Arylsulfatase A-like enzyme
Amino acid sequence: MKSKFLLPSLSLLAMAAAAQHADRPNVLLLVADDLGYGDLSCYGAKHVSTPVVDSLASRGARFTDMHACASTSTPSRYSLLTGKYPFRREGTDVAPGDAGLIFLPTEYTLADLFKEAGYRTAAIGKWHLGLGAETGKQDWNGKLDVTPADIGFDYHYLMAATADRVPCVFIEQGRVANYDASAPIQVSYRKNFPGEPTGRTHPEMLKLLPSHGHDMSIVNGISRIGYMKGGGKALWRDEDIADSIAAHAINFISQETDKPFFMYLCTNDVHVPRYPHERFRGKSSMGLRGEAILQFDETVRQVVTALREKGLDKNTLIIITSDNGPVLDDGYRDEAWKLAGSHNPSGSFRGGKYSSYEGGTAVPFIVYWPKHVKSGTTSNALSSHIDLGASLAQLIGAKVPQGAFPDSRQHLRQLLGKSHRNRNFVVTMPNNRSVDLRVGRWKYIPASRGYAEAWQTHIETGYQLKPQLYDLRRSPYEGQELSSRYPRLAHRLQKVLNKIVKQ
C-alpha cells in the first residue's frame, strides 16, 4: 500500500540493527483513553490511587505542561503517529467503527520509523483509526484488505474503534480474533438488522443504561453506537477487555528475538462504557470510573512486571500518556458525575474532552528509562505529542525521510527531562476543528462556532464568536479573559496562528 521512501537494503538494515541492539532501547508508548490530567495520584488525585504509575513517575520524569494534539481520540492519535497536525488533513474527525484506514498510502508513521530501523513493531489495544480500504465495506468475516501492517506494524491486536462502537470484536493480524463461523458478522451505521434488539427497544436487557445516544445494538448487556449482528464467541466481554489487551502485550514482549521492539499499547480505560473486571468492583469510592482507573494501573503493573521478568526493564523507554482530556458522562448512566465528588479529572484546568480549554488537551505524561532519565524529575516545559516522531528518531539514531513527520521537531533532551526549555508554540484542535494556540504563558482561542457547553457531556467547550486570550501564569484555569486588555497581543497571536495553519 505504501510508497516507500528510499532506504538501505533490508540486509544492511538487519546487520545494523543487530550491531546496535545493545545500545538502542525498546520503546513502549502506552496511551490511555480519556484519562484526565487529574486522574492519577501522582498528578494530585485524592480519591483514587495509582501506585504503579506513581512509582514510574517518581523514578522518572513527570511532565506538567504536555499537550495532545486534539481533544478527541482519532485526530489526537493520528497526529501522535504521523507527526502531522490533524487539521492539515480532512477525515481526522472522531471515526465511526466501520471507518476505512484514515492514513494516506504515503504517510510515514512511528511504526515505519522503528520497523525500518530494525525494530519489531506492534499496535495493541484501542485503535480508532480505521480499518480496511473503504468506510462501511469491510469484510469482517474474512481478511481485511488494509490494516496496520500497511503503516508499519508487524503485529496488531486491536479494538476496531472504541468500546462503545460496533463491531465489538478484536482484530488480530487483519482477521476477527476467535472468529465464530456459526455467527457471521454484519455491521451497519445506517440501520438495524431485522429482529435485532437495541437499547432503545429492549432496555430490560441492559446491565448499564445509556444516558444519551449509545442505545443501538446490545452486546454483553450494554448498548452501543451502531448496529451489529452475529459475532458469537468472538464478541468481547467488557469485563475482560483490559486483561486481554495486557495478555497480548505481554505475549509480544515475551517472544524470543534479537531485535528491540516498539509497542504502541493503548488501553480502553477510562473510555465508556466503563465496566471493569469483577475484581475491581467496590474498590473505588468513584464507582465504575474510579474502578477503571485502578484497572489501568493494574495493566501498567502487568506489563512492567513482564519487562522485568524478561530482563528488559532497564533498557526499555516507557512513555505513559493519554489521548485527550477527560469526560464524566459520555453516554452511560454510570454515576460518574455523582460519585466524583470533589475529584476534578481535569486537575486545575478548565474544560475536558472535546474542549478548546486546557483541560481538553493537557494530559499526563510520564517518561521512565533507568539510568537515562533522572529519578524524581518534574518538567514544566511546554510540550506536545507532535514531537514524538522526530525525538524518537533522534533517540534510536534513525534518519527521518524528507517529508515525514512534517510538524514534528526534535526535542529529545526535553523528552528525557534533561532540558526544561519550552516548545516555541503548541497548537491543538478541539472537536469543532478550530485551532487553538499556546505561546509560553499565553493561551489564544480564536473565534469559532458551536455550543458553549456540550449538552450531552456538560463540558465547557470554549467555542465563542469572539477571540479569547488567557494568561495561564496568572490563572491556569483560564478564568480571566484578557483580549480587550491586550488587543495587540491577541492580534499578533492570531497572525502567528494563521501562519502555522497555512504552512
User: Anything to note?
Assistant: Residues 287-309 form the longest helix (23 residues). The two ends are 27 Å apart (CA to CA). The chain is about 20% helix and 15% strand.
